[in-house]
Amino acid sequence: MTASGVAVVIVNYNGESLLPDCLAALAAQTLAPDEIVVADNGSRDGSLALLHAHHPAVRALELGRNHGFAGGANRGVQATTAPWVCVLNSDATPQPDWLAALVAAPRGELTWALGSVLVSAATGLIESAGDAYAPAGYSHKLLRERPLADLPPDPYRVFAAPGAAPVFRRRVFDLLGGYEERFFLYYEDVDLAFRAALAGYHALLVPSARVTHRLGATTRSMARLRFYVARNSMWCAVRCLPELPVRVLVRRWLAELRANRPRRFVVAEVAGRLAGLAGLPRALRERRAIQARRVVSATEVQALLRLPGVVPGARAGSRSGLGGGDSTAAG
User: Fold this and answer.
1) In terms of pTM, does the model score above 0.85?
2) Domain segments of the chain: what residues?
3) Which of 217, 241, 244, 247 shows the greatest Cβ crowding within 10 Å of its Cβ?
């Protein structure tokens, strides 16, 4: 992979206040991306005017309506031709040597995604050093709230590249069909990573590639977030887990409901679970198709879900990870 072979897609919805910093960070890269596409989900603010007036080199893909993060990202990727493509959140600002570090990382033909360390803009601590997935049906972030000094020095395999700035091998992204657009936002990246793992591919986390992330900067409704996470995490587990531990999953979902804080969001989480149940017949049909294409054994999948041994003190999280793009992409 060379710098001229990387496209960047930013999914945007009313993100006028976030785009300048994100685009400035891309302009400051020591190795420039091949092209930058902003897939705009029908913004009603000044996002498009900003792009046309101040960033004429950036391609504004005007989608006209809100396709969600998943739909906007798929359309943005389809508009590029580079062999590698990054789906970058608008509230993420890569450090100047970010792309150069990714380009320098060794990878094999089965490496389908390159991940960056997400650094919290608020604390300077690690937000994610790779996303992991637990057999109980939830995602979580490695080394969350740990200092950067705890990072291993060399690249290592992870279940998924963190969702705010993953770089995908375009051929595999297309082969997998991209993000599942029915998810709209949240957990669409976890679902995609799981399908890639089932197809025999893996992601590589590059510790020297770092992206500052303003987590929560685009979340306009926490209740909506809880709804989508509750619904989509259910669909992801049903679609992708080779062996479906129904009792384990139900216990986990009930435990999350009991632990939900603040309690005013319980209604949103229950609504999400009910929506997930309503969509189970379709998810089960999709499961049959996904598992029929699986090329790795259930035992191999279990090994993939183990935490990387090179990550010191890594442990499973106690709450479901968010997964996916920010609500700036979907409103």
Assistant:
1) yes
2) 223-293
3) 241
Q: How far apart are CA 164 and CA 88, in angstroms?
A: 6
pLDDT tens digits along 112-153: 999 999 999 999 999 999 999 998 899 999 999 999 999 999
- Spatial contact of 227 and 271, defined as CB atoms under 8 Å apart: yes
- Nearest CA among 7, 26, 4, 168 for reference residue 80: 7
Q: Which two tokens stand for residue 207?
A: 């510790």
- Please name the amino acid found at residue 3: A
Distance CA 150, CA 315 (A): 14
Which tens digit of pLDDT belongs to each residue from 248-271? 999 998 888 888 777 788 899 999
Taking CA atoms, 278 is separated from 47, 48, 142, 283, in Å, by 36, 37, 32, 10
pLDDT over 50 (residue 60): yes
Cα separation of 273 and 252, whole Å? 12
Closest CA to 213 of 323, 326, 71: 326
Q: In terms of C-beta density within 10 A (0-12 exposed, 13-18 middle, 19 or more buried), how is residue 139 classed?
A: buried
